[in-house]
Design a protein that fits this description.
The complex is a heterodimer of chains A (237) and B (210). Chain A is built from ten helices and five strands; from the N terminus they run ααββααβαββααααα. With 237 residues, chain A is an alpha+beta fold. A five-stranded antiparallel sheet of chain A has the order 2-1-5-4-3. With 210 residues, chain B is α+β, with helices and mostly antiparallel strands. Chain B has seven helices and seven strands, in the order βααββαβαβαββαα. Chain B has a seven-stranded mixed sheet, with helices on both faces. In chain B, strand 2 and strand 3 form a beta hairpin. The chains are: A alpha+beta (237), B alpha+beta (210). The interface between A and B is medium-sized, with 38 and 27 residues.
Chain lengths: 237, 210
């Protein structure tokens, strides 16, 4: 039985256009029952691109005021790569306080959790969840969901990289015959024990094949690796 | 004590920062004879120090560094993929749940407990940042040290022979391995967690184990 989250991420994996990313982020926002969820790519030239659930008025205001220059979330996350709670950022400057008040007035929410993402060639993006909640409730939300949110952040980024105009696709790494066998059987719904048995190998050896296939595919976990192997035509399922 | 620091935080502790870069020069240039760049002040820094990495430092007191490691996410630019991909059959390793660690350095005279403490810090990051593995390159000598402190990596590939062998490996410290390393370091798990929380804050420090 697949969870709602897995279904949404599978849809995202199969996204063919940026509009599909927008649909996925709206579905995820509803599924996590938070005020907002945003994926935000900032290029070295300061161009911005992304998807999310902020109101059109707030997005327009952010661009018009050039808030990128002072936004403590963006500025703070550029220096780090570990996820950060907004309360740990420096909001003490006058411009930052005014920005925060403006954001709250536009319904962003006063709590936030942002995942910085570093991509190839110095690419930088942010994935943010924001909400209105007291500190204890928000801390509990982060504890419960951080791991999933980190993975979701990277799902969005790898999709965004695919849609980047003029990108050169990373050369696809061929899977070894044993890796193909293992992934194919997993895709057919076999358990690990059944796969190991079918291939006459130990579960320990199977784990090594799965792990190396996962790394070659740049996948986050086994489910993601199977989805990628199918969508790239490396296995038939 | 263990400190988890980024460039902006290191800038506020220049003594600690400079002894780290000086001890790195002593280890990688003087002792190991690697072709690393050492500046006029005797500090060893490379292009990856300019990419806002995360450092774990053993603070030996008196504003002095006792040992350190440097972390970067493998999704972005990192040393392993740009210089050591041949050890993995030419395949870059890129995953949000794998960070590379490089420049594992011990200050002259630092005891084996410092190496163990630095491994323990890696264990904290693995568990609390939701990582599956740490990725690193090591030589034959470090391989011995890792074995001695009970934290041997899974080797992905090697090149060279004997003393000159270098390898690429993955660490995923199990609970038992972490307990072993903590004993070696002489640090209680509670103290290690306190140091971690001091760096990353209570709100964001307690991801639940998967």
């Amino acid at each position: 039985m697949k969870s709602g989250l897995e279904r949404i991420l599978e849809t995202l994996e199969g996204a063919k256009a940026p509009a599909d990313m927008q649909n996925a982020i709206e579905a995820l926002r509803d599924s996590f029952a938070v005020r907002h969820m945003v994926y935000h790519w900032v290029s070295a030239a300061g161009e911005q691109y992304g998807c999310g659930t902020y109101s059109a008025a707030w997005v327009a205001r952010y661009l018009e005021r050039d808030y990128l220059r002072i936004d403590p979330v963006v500025q703070g996350c550029m220096q780090h790569f570990q996820p950060v709670d907004w309360k740990r950022l420096d909001w003490s400057g006058k411009a930052q306080r005014a920005f925060q008040a403006d954001a709250i007035a536009h319904g962003v929410g006063h709590q936030g959790f942002s995942v910085p993402i570093r991509g190839p060639n110095g690419q930088f993006a942010l994935f943010t969840v924001s909400h209105d909640a007291d500190d204890a409730t928000w801390a509990a939300f982060e504890r419960r969901n951080s791991r999933d949110l980190i993975l979701i952040a990277h799902y969005f980024n790898s999709k965004a990289l695919e849609f980047q105009p003029g990108r050169t696709p990373a050369p696809a790494q061929a899977l070894s015959p044993r890796e193909v066998d293992a992934m194919t059987l997993l895709a057919m719904g076999y358990s690990r024990a059944q796969v190991a048995n079918s291939l006459s190998i130990s579960e320990h050896t199977l784990r090594a094949y799965i792990e190396s296939a996962r790394l070659k595919l740049g996948a986050l976990n086994t489910t993601h690796a199977v989805a990628r192997a199918i969508s790239r035509g490396l296995i038939v399922a | 004590m263990l400190r988890y620091m980024t460039q902006d935080e290191l800038a506020r502790r220049p003594g600690l920062r400079d002894t780290m870069f000086r001890d790195r020069a002593a280890q990688f240039s003087d002792r190991l004879g690697w072709a690393v760049a050492v500046d006029a002040a005797g500090l060893e820094r490379d292009q990856y120090d300019a990419l806002d990495p995360l450092y774990v430092l053993w603070d030996a007191g008196g504003d002095r560094h006792g040992g350190s490691r440097r972390f970067l996410p493998t999704t972005g630019r990192c040393m392993v993929n740009e210089h050591f991909a041949h050890l993995n059959g030419g395949a870059p390793v890129s995953s949000p749940v794998i960070w590379e660690c490089t420049r594992f350095c011990l200050a002259p005279g630092a005891g084996p407990h410092v190496a163990a403490a630095l491994m323990l810090a890696g264990g904290e990051l693995l568990e609390r940042q939701g990582l599956h593995h740490l990725l690193g390159v090591f030589d034959a000598n470090m391989e011995r040290i890792y074995r001695r402190i009970g934290a041997s990596p899974q080797v992905l590939g090697s090149a060279g022979e004997g003393r000159d062998r270098i390898s690429l490996g993955l660490w995923s410290l199990t609970r038992q391995a972490r307990a072993r390393v903590a004993r070696r370091a002489g640090i209680s798990p509670a103290l290690s967690q306190l140091w971690y929380r001091r760096a990353f804050g209570a709100e964001n420090s307690s991801l639940q184990p998967a």
